[in-house]
Amino acid sequence: QSRDVTATFLTHFKWAKMTKTEKLSILNSRPTSLVELYLILEECDERFNDQDLEGILNDVQELLPLGGENEGDAHTPVEKVECMTVDGTSDVEPKLESSDLTRFPE
Predict the structure, then answer these.
(1) Of the candidates 78, 73, 72, 66, which has an alpha carbon nearest to the alpha carbon of residue 24?
(2) CB under 8 Å, gap of 24 or more: what pairs does 48-57 form?
(3) Coil, strand or helix at 51
(4) Cα pseudo-dihedral 75, 10, 102, 90, rounded to 10
(5) Chain centre to alpha carbon of residue 85
(6) Mean per-residue pLDDT pooled into runs of 10, the chain (106 residues)
(7) What backbone torsions phi and psi does residue 2 show, to the nearest 5 degrees?
(8) For 24, what's the count of Cα atoms within 13 Å in the CB-facing half-sphere?
(9) Contact 64, 74 (CB under 8 A)
(10) How far apart are CA 75 and CA 29, in angstroms?
């Protein structure tokens, strides 16, 4: 995410009283369903009502759109490389770079 997008996101969601970890998880995963949101937010049903959760999902889609200027995120396809499985058959696996493993800005 660009610094501007991240700053806008963090400012917009101050009302939600989410932990830093929850905010980073939402920034990186861009949840699109209530199920995904429930997996990210601790004690979700106790802290937020259904209207709050729907609002969070709508705002995430608006503030963190897929593609465009935000390309290079976790949703961008990675290069595939062919490898051999244990039984000797060919399989295709994603080739990950070390930069793919560090998603959090310093």
Answers:
(1) 73
(2) 48/16, 52/16, 56/13, 56/16, 56/26, 57/31, 57/32, 57/33
(3) helix
(4) -20
(5) 30
(6) 84 89 92 94 92 93 71 46 56 52 50
(7) -75, 160
(8) 8
(9) no
(10) 8
